[in-house]
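ugh ok fine here u go
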Amino acid sequence: MVNGYDAAAGTELAASDRELIRRRERVLGRPYRLFYREPLHPVRAHGAHLFDADGNDFLDAYNNVPVVGHSNPRVQEAVTAQLGTLNTHTRYLTDGVIEYAERLTALFPAPLTQAIFACTGSEAVDLALRIARHATGGEGIIITRNAYHGTTAAAAAISPSLGPGNPIPDTVALLDAPDSVHGPGGAAAEDVWLAQVRAAIASFAARGIPCAGMIVDSVLSSDGLRLEPRGFLGRAAELVRAAGGLYIADEVQPGFGRTGAWWGFARHRLVPDLVVLGKPMGNGMPISAVIGSPGLFDRFGAEVRYFNTFGGNPVSVAAAGAVLDELEDRSLLAHAARLGTLLADGLRAASAGDERVAEVRGAGLFLGVEMVDGEGRPDPAAALGIVNELRARRILVSASGTGENVLKIRPPLVFTEADAERFLDGFAAALRATR
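structure:
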């Protein structure tokens, strides 16, 4: 984990934080991790800002889950009102879940007209895999080499970014993401990508493994935010369908306007067979969904018993409806597109002439800055240095990518122009301080 706290590093912390870490490690155990060389201890948050007990203001340029901002008043009001009225499961008739499903599916192209709700993105990924395997009779799944799709057993099996101790079964094929820094560009990049898809399908066939489908995060965020060439995911979906599989778009990170469009798959001239949604849809409340067609859902529902006790409960649905209200009423998609361009231009200007910065790329308010060493190789130490230097300046980002060398910039969509100016000033200062 490139951006993680290491007690052995000798970072000086306040006595109260040291004691809290000791207690945390005792009751939560080793699976839990903390970000940053000096862990952050926030006590409240608002918009794109986190505050510690001393009132210090940390600019959040990383957390995508509170998509319409921390402690959003509209979401708070909707949740509070519903929690005081009714909260139960979907085996009863309730108005809210139907109204929300109608509103949500209207944002998707045909034939994606139905929704199945769950509580987490991992659950939704798990369900999408079950539907794909049931519909196709296949087992083989194609993913990218550093993908992250969740933490259930099925989702972890297609999440190689969880590390070497997380085994990937032989029914999963790994593809290298297009690499705009170290690989070919344009049509050649797409040719390399599609050759890998064909090889994965052929490998399944040679081993007697029917192809169930392909699942990709629509911006390949864990692979380092790979956005080009436009259309490469659409062409892959054609090959997968020709082999009898389904295409699943994981929209947990890029969805709900982050890229300046409702869904990240839109940039690839693609209509998925299934779409997975996660935590941002409820601004952090436990709600997720699989979006699909009646043809797929009817057969699955008729032959497989599926029920999620509190998936789509009235309180989480109220939060999700408030998120849509905020996105629409405040024109946050257009805002993300405009402010994302401003940030990308500012990042390029700040890093001009710095040989450590190989590329700035992004879509809307999802940006990546790729760090390399003097030989042009991925440099995770340089990325970590910037992450912690920004943390020292009370600006929060992280790093990801196959080489753990890509700064991951992903603020709530309510990020303002003043926030962007503060971020760019801090980024320029961090570059100078670590040069």
